Amino acid sequence: GKVYNNAVQTAYTLIFKSNGDNQLNFDVNFENNTFNRVYFTYSAEEEEAFYGFGEQCSFFNNKGKKIPIWVNEQGVGRGDITDPIINAVLGLSAGNETSNYISVPHYISTSNRSLYLENTNYSVFDLTESDKVQIDTWSSHLVGNIISGNSPKELITEYTTYSGRMRKLPSWVGEGAIIGLQGGTEKLYDEWAALEEKGTPIAAFWVQDWIGQRTTIVGKQLWWNWELDNDRYPNWDELVDTLGKKNIRLLGYINPFIANIYGQKTNIRRNIFLEARTNGFLVKKENGDPYLIKQTSFDAGIIDLTNPACRVWIKEIIKDELIARGLKGWMADFAEALPYDAVLFSGESPKDYHNKYTEVWMQINREAIEESGYGDEMVFFARSGFTQSPKYSTLFWQGDQLVDWGQNDGIKSAMTGLMSAGISGFSLNHSDIGGYTTVTYPIVKNYVRSKELLKRWIEMSAFTTVFRT
What we know:
By secondary structure, the protein is an alpha/beta fold. It has nine helices and 23 strands. It starts with a strand and ends in an 8-residue tail after the last helix.
């Protein structure tokens, strides 16, 4: 066929073909790629409900909504904070009901219908009309699949042949609580003694400040230079050994940012930012400079995962600085922040790679474990994800909920997100017990965790995959 744009016309193809026994593939392609949007519209039933789309935290049924498929920071409050003063301070950081860490172009419906896209670029599923669905894809090429099945279970089973299925967690994860704490070796021993006195079963201590901690304008943050801080955690090897004798693991933290710590952190053995910049391992701006992103009161670069040499380099850091030091897992944080106007080593468009970036970040963490010979005994947990992230990751967590009861960013959103993400293949998932984000602001309402909220969240998390503070 042909389509017209003002005075310009282009040919297009629309092809349907079998993709196995239970899937029908559709492929729309414009000959002229300056036609950069494809609208794909098809019928729906008036009462048809739509579930999935990754980790949608505000609504389980998305009928009547427009769902953007774009992995991003979910924000603070996502509409639950109504005070105009706080929202003025938060600005775009407030987020909204469709901003999510895990966003996937896939759904199942109450009419036993299911569909997913193979595209990685930005798209929107428009479910606002009662009798149709419209997919808006920001590309000249749209590829997707329609799934056939007789039940939700059959549809999800068929879909996960494409997305991948999460592997079984090691048994130690279920042998007690995973206790998140910071403060150093002595603090850990003190907390351990108090928990032992109460008879608390412990699977692991998660010490995200193993790399050290700095003070910034928002309070305490980590040094994003991925090596052990021997001053904060002296006698590390002894600590690992002592905990190991009690069948307790240590977990750490890493993300794909690297901060320039030159002249700021004094006890470094290795300047990882300098290594990355020297070797061209950082995502760049159009002028060739590293693309530095403001993180409260410091800047950080993003590692370029399209560069094969960079992928080998960051895997070696994970192997040497995390695995070889005795960590049995870590939080693999972030990965949703690749800028739309970045320049990548491979020459790929960042608008097509943005969502894919989080999949590759999961893949690299998984490969580091497997190449170290540890198989399924290690666990890394991530908050961001796209279609095929479950293939690589061992566990997900739901990011930073507000310490509140809200539907969009409180305890209710955690439960809704667990259910919707599960439909899109994210089967092993959990939230921070009690939520995470506290907001305090003079005069207006403060959002501070209450004792009752903590207890209710404890009760809820007792029935989820992982019990972690």
